[in-house]
């Protein structure tokens, strides 16, 4: 009898072990299948969503920034610009940009991005091309203000789209890829302008700068039309290219993995107005806003870089425009490297502050010497440092303020709106009487680099404390916490 009981117990134990091994094997197979499915999903996104938003952002910034190249043609003379009127024309675009961003992101959560974003791109293409038809300062101000309004939906909308499809560990590199559209647009706009001014200036009675606006506006419009057929909507949508691009298993996984990726938080009302309330009441929204505003102020040189390079007296107008490209090309490589390292190490704070220290060093070198090679080298430092850190700030903000999709949409729009304040006032750093060295501007941009570094370290400290609280709750409840990225 005793032997029989022991045998039964032994058999039950063997059966339990076998069942456990079977469950573990099934779980392992399931995880492998899920990982394979996730890789396929991300690969499809990288081949459709990313190229579309990159191309649109490339033209978005090229259409906005071509005024910097036009300044080296007969732009100011033809329009009769005097004093700081060019600075006002640069600044006024950002006023329109600020006014439209938050309403646009709130609208975006309720409409089809595959129609809304390309439609905005078509509008800004037409408005940018219309700059070629202005004849005076008043007309330029009107066109630039409207251009800011119609361009405003793109960056926060595109970034919100990326954060709706990619997880936090994937987002920094993709944001850097997207942000490289800005850097490369700035680089290639100088090369394009050099070709246009050399070959089309005066053709059919039009100045080179007019041809520049027309050609780039037409190319942008064409890209917008194509994007309408490729851009997917949100993961849960049944419209757009997602209908043929993703199968049902991929759609379900796309929704589930973003839901799992949110920082731990109680279930709340997910309406857009409640999301706005959550975003406004979260003090971290405003810390990120200050951080990014200071960062944007630090790269106030962007619309004046051709004028800065002109001050180096490197040669003709064509040589000057060509020489504006290398620092931005290097900045693109630096941005990718920083973003790759940030994703790989799952770290944000030092990947923002260290590049900004390099940027500050570049500004210091520019102020400290008259040596042209040293000042040109310094431009590589401050361009690489500013642009390398900027994309990581956006990523950090989106992955921190992501408790609900509505909050993420509103918070990222608020952060981006506040950052535009730096773009509104930074053009006034570059006073005509300070050319060609612009020493006060360089000192101001160095100061804002330092402010951004300080806010970055403050945020890192605050989030470390928040993570400790989440870990304590995990110990109490037994529910695994999703932590804030540091």
The SS-based structural class is: mainly alpha
Distance between the termini: 63 Å
Low-confidence stretches: 13-30, 264-268
Give the CATH architecture: Up-down Bundle
Order of helices and strands: HHHHHHHHHHHHHHHHHHHH
CATH topology assignment: Growth Hormone, Chain: A
Strand content: under 5%
Q: Averaging pLDDT over every residue, what do you get?
A: 85
What oligomeric assembly is this protein in? Answer: single chain
Give a short account of the largest sheet: none
SS summary, helix count: 20
Number of strands: 0
Per CATH, the superfamily is: MFS general substrate transporter like domains
Q: Give the C-alpha Rg.
A: 26 Å
Overall number of domains: 1
The portion of residues assigned to helices is over 70%
The outline comes out as globular
At a glance:
With 486 residues, the chain is mainly alpha-helical. Helices cover 79% and strands 0% of the residues.
Report on this model:
The protein has 486 residues and is mostly helical. It has a single domain (47-477), classed as Up-down Bundle (Growth Hormone, Chain: A). Helices cover 79% and strands 0% of the residues. The protein is built from 20 helices and no strands. Helix 2 (49-70) packs antiparallel against helix 9, helix 4 packs parallel to helix 6 and helix 13 runs antiparallel to helix 18. The termini are far apart. Mean pLDDT is 85; it is low at 13-30 and 264-268.
């Amino acid at each position: 009898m005793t032997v029989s009981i022991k045998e039964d117990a032994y058999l039950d134990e063997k059966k339990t072990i076998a069942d456990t091994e079977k469950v573990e094997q099934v779980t392992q197979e399931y995880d492998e299948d899920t990982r394979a499915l996730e890789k396929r999903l991300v690969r499809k996104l990288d081949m459709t969503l990313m190229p579309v938003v990159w191309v649109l952002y490339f033209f978005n910034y090229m259409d906005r920034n071509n005024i910097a190249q036009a300044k080296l043609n007969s732009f100011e003379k033809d329009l009769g610009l005097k004093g700081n009127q060019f600075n006002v024309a640069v600044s006024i675009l950002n006023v329109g940009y600020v006014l439209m961003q938050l309403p646009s992101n709130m609208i975006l959560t309720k409409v089809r991005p595959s129609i809304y974003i390309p439609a905005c791109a078509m509008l800004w293409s037409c408005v940018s091309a219309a700059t070629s038809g202005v004849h005076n300062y008043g007309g330029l101000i009107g066109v630039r203000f409207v251009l800011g309004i119609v361009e405003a939906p793109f960056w926060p909308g595109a970034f919100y789209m990326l954060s709706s499809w990619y997880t936090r560990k994937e987002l920094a590199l993709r944001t850097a890829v997207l942000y490289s559209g800005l850097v490369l647009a700035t680089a290639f706009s100088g090369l394009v302008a050099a070709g246009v001014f050399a070959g089309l200036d005066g053709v059919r009675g039009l100045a080179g700068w007019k041809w520049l606006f027309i050609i780039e506006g037409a190319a942008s419009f064409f890209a917008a039309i194509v994007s309408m057929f490729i851009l997917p909507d949100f993961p849960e949508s049944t419209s757009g290219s997602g209908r043929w691009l993703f199968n049902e298993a991929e759609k379900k996984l796309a929704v589930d993995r973003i839901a799992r990726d949110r920082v731990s938080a109680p279930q709340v009302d997910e309406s857009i107005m409640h999301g706005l309330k959550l975003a406004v009441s979260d003090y971290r929204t405003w810390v990120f806003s200050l951080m990014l505003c200071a960062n944007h102020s630090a790269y106030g040189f962007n619309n004046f870089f051709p004028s800065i390079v002109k001050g180096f007296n490197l040669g003709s107008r064509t040589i000057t425009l060509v020489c504006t490209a290398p620092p931005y090309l290097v900045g693109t490589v630096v941005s990718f490297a920083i973003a790759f390292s940030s994703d790989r190490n799952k770290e944000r704070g030092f990947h923002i502050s260290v590049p900004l220290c390099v940027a500050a060093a570049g500004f210091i070198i520019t102020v400290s010497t008259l040596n042209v090679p040293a000042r040109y080298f310094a431009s590589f430092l401050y361009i690489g440092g500013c642009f390398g850190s900027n994309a990581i700030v956006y990523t950090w903000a989106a992955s921190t303020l992501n408790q609900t999709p509505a909050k993420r949409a509103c918070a990222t729009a608020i952060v981006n709106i506040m950052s535009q304040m730096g773009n509104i006032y930074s053009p006034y750093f570059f006073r005509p009487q300070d050319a060609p060295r612009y020493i006060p501007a360089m000192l101001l941009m160095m100061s804002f680099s330092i402010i951004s570094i300080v806010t970055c370290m403050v945020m890192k400290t605050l989030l470390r404390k928040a993570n400790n609280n989440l870990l304590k709750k995990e110990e109490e409840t037994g529910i695994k916490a999703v932590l804030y990225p540091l």
